[in-house]
Amino acid sequence: MTVTQRFLKYVSFPTGSDEGSAAVPSTECQLELGRYIVSELQSLGLEAELDEFGRVYSFLPANFSDAAPLGFIAHMDTSPDAPGENIKARIVRYEGGDLCHIKAESFPKLLNYVNQDIIITDGATLLGADDKAGIAEIITAVEYLLSHPEIPHRGMALCFTPDEEIGCGADHFSFEKFHAEAAYTVDGGELGELEYENFNAASAVIRIHGVSIHPGEGKGRMKNAVLIASDFVSRMPKEEIPACTEAYEGFYHIHDIEGSTAEARIAMIIRDHDMDSFLARKAFVAELTAQLNELYGAGTLELMMKDSYYNMREKILPHMELISNAEKAFRDAGVEPKIVPIRGGTDGARLSYEGLPCPNLSTGGVNFHSVHEFIPVRAMEKMVEVILNLVK
Prior knowledge:
The chain has 9 helices and 15 strands. An 8-stranded mixed sheet has the order 1-2-6-3-7-14-8-13, with helices on one face.
C-alpha cells in the first residue's frame, strides 16, 4: 500500500478528541482507528497491541545487531477546533492561484506547491494530516523494510497515541512496552521542519458565578456573569494573541466562552517558550482573577489552571545527535532541513521530560486544525524516505 492510499484510509475514520470528556481515551472513535492499525500491523507480520488506554504499540526487530532501536510516535486524534467527521478527501493537481476553498491570498504557503498533487477536503472539515500523515509515513516505512529484508536496519519501536490534541497523548505511556531509549514524533508541519524547542503550555478555565434575578428587580441585586466575563476579556493584553505573534513570541488564546446571567465560563491556553515569561503569564491570569473578585465579590470568579507540557529544549540538548542524524536523513532524501521552534507542543515534549528524548519531524502538512488543511503527496513520500534514512 502506498503512503497516500494508507493516509486516505486513515482519514476516513473520524477521531476527534474531546477535552470535556472524562473517558480514556476521550472518544470511542479513536479506538476504532486503533483497532484498524493493530490489524494492519499484524497483517504485515508484526506483533501489535491496543492497550486499555487506547495506545497502539508495535516493534519491528532489527536485522543487524550493532545499533539501538529508535522510536517513532504519532497521534491518532484530530483537533476539536474544526469539524472532523465525514471527511471527503481527494487528490487534486495544483496549477497555481486558488485551490478550491483554499485562497492563495489568505494562505500564501499554497504557492509553494505549484504542479504538485495535493490532498484536500471539500472545505467542510479538517483533513487530519495532523497526525494521520505521521502514522501513514511511519507504517509505510515499516512495510518497505519488511518487503526488503536485504536492507540492514535498526529496530523500530512504534507508538500511536490518542488525545494528543487535548494534551493527554503522553498520559499512560508505557516505557516497558516501548522498546527504545530515544524517539521522534512525526507530528510537524511543512516538509523539512525539524523541531526540538516548543512552548511551555498551560490551560486555564475561569468559572464565573453570577446572580440571576428578574431584570425588573435587578438593581443592586443582579450580578451578570456574562458581563463579568466580558470585563475579564477586555482586560487581557490585546496584542498578545495568536493573530499578533510569531516565532518565539508567547500568547494568551481565549478559545471558548459560554454563559448566561447566572453562570459563565472562559477557557483559554497560555503559551511561551521562555520559562520566566511563561510563569509571568500564569501569574497575570491569577492576579486578574483576584482583582475581579475584589471588584465583584469574593468567589465570583473561580480559576482552574494546570500545566500541559514544557519546552523540551533542555532535555534534547544532551542528545543533539538526534538532531544531526535527522538533518542528515532529510538531506539524504533531497530535502533541506529547517530547524524551527514549535508554536505548540507534541507528545514528545512531555516524554522528553519523562526520560525519552523525542524531537519532532515534519509530516508535510499545512494549515493544521482548520478546513484549509492540505498535504502534498510528494511531502508524504519524502517523509517515508527520511524515516528509512534514520533507521537504515
